[in-house]
Automatic annotation (TrEMBL):
Native organism taxonomy: Archaea, Methanobacteriati, Methanobacteriota, Stenosarchaea group, Methanomicrobia
InterPro entries linked: OapB-like
Species the sequence originates in: Methanococcoides burtonii (strain DSM 6242 / NBRC 107633 / OCM 468 / ACE-M)
Protein name: DUF2073 domain-containing protein
Pfam families membership: OapB
Amino acid sequence: MQGIQMDLVSEDRLAKMQPVEKVRFIIDEVKGGKILVLERGLTPEEEASLIEMTMTLIEPDDFAGIEMESYPSQTDNSLLGKLFKKNVVRTRLTVIGPANKLKTLKKDRDMISALVSSK
């Protein structure tokens, strides 16, 4: 059976990893042709590190890079957050895949629409 593998990665699995481990895990999986859906997205620092490391690995015939889309972050406006004046920014679901297989068609606050090709 041919197709594209899509892995849904739980927040718990990523929470056990250090930031460098997360980035390496994502790059290894995407270089292998998989599309990852992260239950809890990456921090801005982790996203920047992922992009930076990916840029160093791009090879036109081997690895075209990544396509990444996330829902916009949300701020925790809970009562406790307001009492302690903590504006905790929560990252949300993120979709990451090989740039030559995943193309974002539309993104808004609550939906990401993507086209997956089996090239």
